[in-house]
Each structure stands twice: as structure tokens, then as C-alpha cells.
Amino acid sequence: MDDTARRAQAARNTCPFLTAKQTAFHLGLGYSTLKAMRAAGTGPRCRRHGRTWRYHIDDIEAWSRANAKGDRA
Fold first, then answer.
1. How many DSSP H helices and E strands does the chain contain?
2. Domain extent for 39
3. Is pLDDT of 72 > 70?
4. I need a surface site. Which of 21, 46, 55, 70 has the fewest CB within 10 A?
5. So what's the pLDDT on residue 1?
């Protein structure tokens, strides 16, 4: 494997972008629920990469924190 292929593989292994299915699983939501939230503008911030919607892990975590309920004493 040449250096370019090795670097590309490393980037894929450490990519901070999740697919919609990965994001739904991470959040404990159904894929269709996440899709509906994206359409309504109520879900985590996302980006379109080609034909695929991607969610950055930082955006997922920020959305989750912003939607937390209750006090933590």
C-alpha cells in the first residue's frame, strides 16, 4: 500500500463524521426519527457530503447536551 492509500485509510478509520444510521444508533434513535428531525430542522446539525448526510461527532454531542433535561447535582 502506498503512502496516499495508507493516509486515506487512516482518515477513514478516524473520521469524525458519522452517517445518519451511525448517528441514530449513537443517539438511541430510530433512523426514520433522525431523518424526520433533519427534515423538521430539530435534530443535530448535519452536512451533505455528496449524496450522503453526515453528522460531525462534535455537533451530535452539542445537540445532545443542549437537549438534556434535569439538574445534575
1. 4, 3
2. 16-66
3. no
4. 70
5. 59
